[in-house]
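Preliminary data (for renewal application), FE2/S2 (inorganic) cluster complex.
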Amino acid sequence: MESRRIQFKLFRYRPGEEGPPRFQVFDLDVGPRDTVLDALEMLRTRNDPSLLYRHSCHHSSCGTCACRVNGTERLACVTVVWDLETEEVVLEPLAGFPRLGDLVVDMRPFYEQIPPGMTYLRESEWNREASTAHGLTRYERFESCIECGSCESACPVPRTPEEFIGPAGLAATSREIEKDSSQMTGLLDVAGSENGVGRCRRALLCSRVCPTEVYPAGHIDKLRKRLKNEG
Ligand code: SF4
Ligand code: FES
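Predicted structure:
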């Protein structure tokens, strides 16, 4: 089968390591449909069984494989290496999360910033395949976030939960208000708090990297408008 020799530059890290980032370079023959996750699996099997990365579903549903590919947040399982159109692929962990090893980060801060009380139902998944009605061209999934952390990694605002709720948390807050308006007042208090929408710098990177079209920046804007109308 046709293949291309690609150089993978992998971020390597073990807890406790200090000093400048350490990268390890591997050359790998990659086929036209091989994804970054396929490449990682080949590298781990053939070159270095100690390589650490996360994955589960292999089809952009679980969000666990998110990492930075050539500097941009992507899901490794659906990123086709040839489509990157580079001879060198740099793989790094998501930014802004505590590192656990190589491409693996600690996702706990992500969940800690989701305001409490979210029902977090994925209401629209049941009708994803259903035919549309009432003049709609498609059903938008109401709650599509796969909790991959890409938006958080791309966001330039410093982000402990005390500093900024962050794009995923604010998007969840906005969606929750849309789902259950009886919660509006309490959730708008969260969105309008010191670590809420006022911290957003409108960089829009969160919406650009989100693999499931949540458009966190759009939700942050909706929250701003609601706060203005309520105020
Ligand atoms: S909003 Fe999008 S980018 Fe952010 S965690 Fe959810 S799926 Fe990932
Ligand atoms: S492995 Fe589940 S989203 Fe990539």
